[in-house]
Amino acid sequence: MTQRKVAVVGVSLSDCGRVNEATPYALHAQAARRALADSGLGREVVDGFASAGLGTLAPIEVAEYLGLRPRWVDSTSVGGSTWEVMASHAADAIAAGHANAVLLVYGSTARADIKAGRRTGDLSFGARGPLQFEVPYGHTLIAKYAMAARRHMHEYGTTVEQLASIAVQARANAASNDEAMFRDPITVDEVLSGPMIADPFTRLHCCIRSDGGAAVLLAAEEYVRDCRTRPVWVLGTGEHVSHTTMSEWPDFTVSPAAVSGPIAFERAGVRADEVDVAEIYDAFTYMTLVTLEDLGFCAKGEGGAFVEKGRLLVGGDLPVNTDGGGLSAQHPGMRGLFLLVEAARQLRGEAGARQVRRRDGRLPSLAVASGTGGWFCSSGTVVLGRG
């Protein structure tokens, strides 16, 4: 059977940042309506739905709230990489004819819930199963990333200043993004002098906490002619899971993107050095650095030198997290869907003051979105191409 081509035909964010009055369901609905409006298609074409992180029976509960009755659903939940993995599944389903148009949607009031006392700042993943062997020792999520960063620093000489430069460049990119929560410039010294959270991470090494939602509509190629904007094609995807406990992680300096990335690039028929813009999950600065290595943008151990000298800026050699990322723009929980939104906007030339241009002045033609979940437990990578 001939496989259909699949395109991203609609993307949008809900209100983001400080959203005190909305519920997570409302943010889902707002993002979904905006993405459909962006596509120019009616909701009657949506026969597939993917959602995770909300409701007792996700995605059934959220689909009902949105007034959808999908024939294809996905509720894969693997942390921050959930949305890249779901996009992979949805693209496969559309290509095979199991669905025609799949809506991916997410919304969270993580910040507002804390401010209102509806939850605490740190949610436990639980203490059953394999986690019971780590939880009693107080090994937090942040501590796990910090320990991995320290290993990279020990093994390859990566410096805390190099890690800090990632936060500085993310903030510089955010300065041109009206939807970013934090836009004031920061310096390496300011990153280093901030409150220590988990050595070597000070506060600005860590993602912000915001409210917000996002939605992406994927559709089969025959729907593209009815869409409002030019399509962004899904060229290749990859996914991988590695471990639950730190004791089962073979190498703290290698993320699961080392598997998902090459798979996605191979399926897309492109090389990493052909990519014009990269949207990478950045819950912590080290996550950006090691993912760049594992996607093949630089060799293992060379990430520290690679991120220096403004290379990640919108006008740099490899623009990364052009909206400001989770470090500065928004991070309402599982942020992977925001990566796909920004990648599509860049390829469509709709990023405004933060728009990436190739050296010849043309719009970028290739983008990669790579999400990471848990404590480097999972990865999903999606390669997109401009139509």
TrEMBL record:
Molecular function in Gene Ontology: acyltransferase activity, transferring groups other than amino-acyl groups
Sequence intervals crossing the membrane: none
A matching Pfam family: Thiolase_C_1
Top-rank taxon, per record: Bacteria
Keywords: Transferase
InterPro entries (alphabetical): Thiolase (IPR002155), Thiolase-like (IPR016039), Thiolase_C_2 (IPR055140)
Residue stretches making up the Thiolase C-terminal domain: 238-386
UniProt KW Zinc keyword: no
The protein, known as: Acetyl-CoA acetyltransferase
